[in-house]
Write a structure and sequence with these properties.
about 270 residues, 10-stranded antiparallel sheet, 6 helices, globular
């Protein structure tokens, strides 16, 4: 117990104090942009071929994954050799899929696209949310995010989001962050945004790529999340590594689980009213 408390103390001190040394260098952002450009080209190819990643799996493995999904599991996997080291930063790339039974694709899209109620569906990870503007299938949205693991970090984020349709049974969306800022003392009278380079570097960028496929008895929902964080200081990987690497995966797991729960709950309520 004493050893565990010592590790937590070191980790907390590093993130709270040492985090102020984090900086978004142009070379860090350029490396992220390069990675995203290559990832989006791959995602585009997959969208036009197999659509869902699980369709590219060998038959036996695909059947096993589908069975797990139909039993209610959220299946998560790491994409590429990530977290990928870039100058003064780390890129995290995770892909997850969930199956939502007894609903149709329009019900799922309707809930995911309801940004004025996102905080209601995805609490406590999303504290506030609102649609800022909408022009057809191109939207700009705001979300205040809360992330907790030993310490709590609150982030104000904005995204450009585009929705697309391949056919009635296959739809997708692309969300790219345009602003990510850390909030100091959220909810207090002295609440303020930390300027770049004075934050903890918990998250500098977050892009998500969604795919929705209609099946006979429900909808498969896939999401790939690509994020950028500060690097891990040399010699402290054993302490900081699990914190930095676990949060992106856990956030994706929560998002997909919450999507399934919210859509299923809303659909169930509608059926009872009928």
């Amino acid at each position: 117990m004493k050893a565990k408390l010592t590790i937590l103390a070191v980790l907390t001190t590093l993130l709270v104090a040492g985090g102020h040394l984090a900086a978004q260098q142009p070379k860090t952002l350029a490396a992220f942009d390069t990675y995203v450009s290559e990832a989006e080209a791959r995602i585009g190819r997959e969208r036009n071929s197999t659509f869902l990643n699980l369709e590219s799996l060998p038959s036996a493995q695909r059947g096993e994954v589908i069975n797990r999904l139909r039993q209610g599991e959220v299946v998560i996997e790491k994409r590429g050799n990530t977290p990928e080291q870039v100058p003064d930063g780390l890129i995290h790339d995770w892909l997850g899929v969930v199956f939502i039974p007894h609903v149709d694709i329009e019900q799922v899209i309707g809930l995911v696209r309801d940004y004025n109620r996102t905080a209601q569906y995805y609490s406590p990870d999303v504290m506030q949310s609102r649609l800022e503007s909408e022009h057809g299938d191109d939207l700009h949205v705001f979300m205040r995010l809360r992330k907790h693991k030993v310490i709590t970090v609150v982030l104000d984020t904005e995204y450009d989001v585009h929705y697309g349709r391949i056919d009635k049974a296959h739809q997708y969306s692309v969300s790219r962050s345009t602003r990510v800022t850390e909030v100091e003392n959220p909810g207090e009278a002295n609440e303020h945004v930390l300027p770049p380079g004075r934050d903890h570097g918990y998250m500098w960028r977050l892009n998500t790529y969604w795919a929705f496929e209609q099946a006979k008895d429900g909808v498969f929902v896939q999401c790939e999340a690509i994020s950028l964080t500060r690097d891990i200081p040399a010699g402290l990987t054993w302490v900081v590594g699990p914190f930095v690497n676990d949060i992106p995966r856990e956030s994706l797991q929560f998002t997909l689980s919450a999507t399934r729960a919210a859509v299923s709950g809303k659909a169930s309520g509608a059926r009872k009213q009928d």
